Amino acid sequence: xxxxxxxxxxxxxxxxxxxxxxxxxxxxxxxxxxxxxxxxxxxxxxxxxxxxxxxxxxxxxxxxxxxxxxxxxxxxxxxxxxxxxxxxxxxxxxxxxxxxxxxxxxxxxxxxxxxxxxxxxxxxxxxxxxxxxxxxxxxxxxxxxxxxxxxxxxxxxxxxxxxxxxxxxxxxxxxxxxxxxxxxxxxxxxxxxxxxxxxxxxxxxxxxxxxxxxxxxxxxxxxxxxxxxxxxxxxxxxxxxxxxxxxxxxxxxxxxxxxxxxxxxxxxxxxxxxxxxxxxxxxxxxxxxxxxxxxxxxxxxxxxxxxxxxxxxxxxxxxxxxxxxxxxxxxxxxxxxxxxxxxxxxxxxxxxxxxxxxxxxxxxxxxxxxxxxxxxxxxxxxxxxxxxxxxxxxxxxxxxxxxx
Amino acid sequence: xxxxxxxxxxxxxxxxxxxxxxxxxxxxxxxxxxxxxxxxxxxxxxxxxxxxxxxxxxxxxxxxxxxxxxxxxxxxxxxxxxxxxxxxxxxxxxxxxxxxxxxxxxxxxxxxxxxxxxxxxxxxxxxxxxxxxxxxxxxxxxxxxxxxxxxxxxxxxxxxxxxxxxxxxxxxxxxxxxxxxxxxxxxxxxxxxxxxxxxxxxxxxxxxxxxxxxxxxxxxxxxxxxxxxxxxxxxxxxxxxxxxxxxxxxxxxxx
Lengths: 404, 255
What we know:
The structure holds two protein chains of two kinds. By secondary structure, chain A is α/β, with parallel strands linked by helices. Chain A has three domains: about 15-145, 3-Layer(aba) Sandwich (Rossmann fold); about 155-255, Nitrogenase molybdenum iron protein domain (Rossmann fold), CATH 3.40.50.1980; about 275-310 and about 320-400, Rossmann fold (3-Layer(aba) Sandwich), CATH 3.40.50. Helices cover about 40% and strands about 15% of the residues of chain A. The longest helix of chain A is centred in the middle third of the chain and has 16 residues, at about 130-145. The radius of gyration of chain A is 21 Å and the shape is globular. Chain B is about 40% helix and about 15% strand. Chain B starts with a strand and ends with a helix. The model of chain B has no long low-confidence stretch (mean pLDDT about 95).
């Protein structure tokens, strides 16, 4: 059994579903008890603040489960979706539907007939890591609404995996999106973050199959990237570019080139052994930045969600910024992470501020919120990671005073 | 491949009928898989000389996920692949949810690809008493539902409930009704009664199995009547019924 004394369990599968689909103008129905979506909207979904919710609960009561009031459930959703003029409905499973064996696929078929909009289900159980739910949600959405492009868009790029649980506020990835555009590429779809000035939130999804290349910036985008390679022949690059070296290497990969040799570090930081704790694609981005922008000789990555799929090798992957090191580990165990953070050899830690509670000693701690861990708590914290902004933020922290 | 779920009132003879069909199909060279969906694990007993395969749910609980399909499947007369879902001790647990777990396991272990059955028979324990018992009707599981009934009032009421449940689920892309099998109880005008019921419910009788003591005599020996003496008139009825099931497969493949 997992024990959490000082931190929190990470968001699970149906949180990942709601995070992935939130911005697309649909209705995500979490098949749980009355009040079941409350914790998503109130705690884990900082983008919602009153008004019609994108994520709603099924509102199940005891007698609904006993008597199988499926019609009531289906009619309620159809009414809400039509009333709010939503573009689709997604039914996401929870421990309730998993335990009682609810046929969400069957519900989706019935609902589609009554709501006259696309309806699909995502088979989450509430026990899987959130990227699994987000990945399944992207695949289900693509299966329902993505179609082959009439023609390819030269230099068209999609950014996949930009879900708030991994990459935070939309403005955190803006420097990356701007860098991609400045390099001469056209952003077709950013999944799942609507582009400024685009009225239809699903437009990016519809345009996405015309892309020349996908950029996967979190584990949640990987399954969709593999699907888009199989369905539309679009290769992908893997990595979230943090700092200057990351930016240059990433853009080289997008151009289909191999990154050049690393230039000498002009201003090395004083740290010798850093530990980065969090989502692995971002974690490896930070690792590259600390190594190549700031000359930190050893940087280990602790992935708090499974990362093995990043290293399996795929013909769809045309380039990656991610290199597994011998001391990198996957663990969400509070005890394991505490042991790694309190290793006396480690002199710098980059992690969500919640992990600071695990420290039993003074050490440089750079705050990099992971929304899947801290939800709203550090949503408004000023921090950056993407390209030049990430370099500035990490530089200021590394050379700044105090323990971070 | 066609997957047929056999429903009907408790004690109506579903396992006898299912096993007779399986044996007839198997002896004619078809690849057949029969999955008993009853915690009593007695669906396939007469295909296996009076023994049962290890029940899937008990196996999962005691030993974890099986390494191979052979751990939970046994081959019976005519090469019929026999499996039993198993289930909770009477009075506890939830059998319907257990069925779902067993079906998911067979899917994950690619049982259908491994055994390549032409016909799959799911022998379901009762009529539709709750959502759990409707699991085999779900999309991707059974293609057709066949209901075993007699001419008795309670059996026909159970059959009616099953048909209404199926129609209620029509917009979920669940299994379709394949028809009725009349397992006779020697009532007066039994065939006519069931024919009238079938007309009323807009379905048909796809087979009639007469009341025959030979069935019970061979079952005492752990055999179906088809295996015991394939020349008997009742055995010939099973062969006819098997041909009808094969035709259901042909219709489905054509569709």
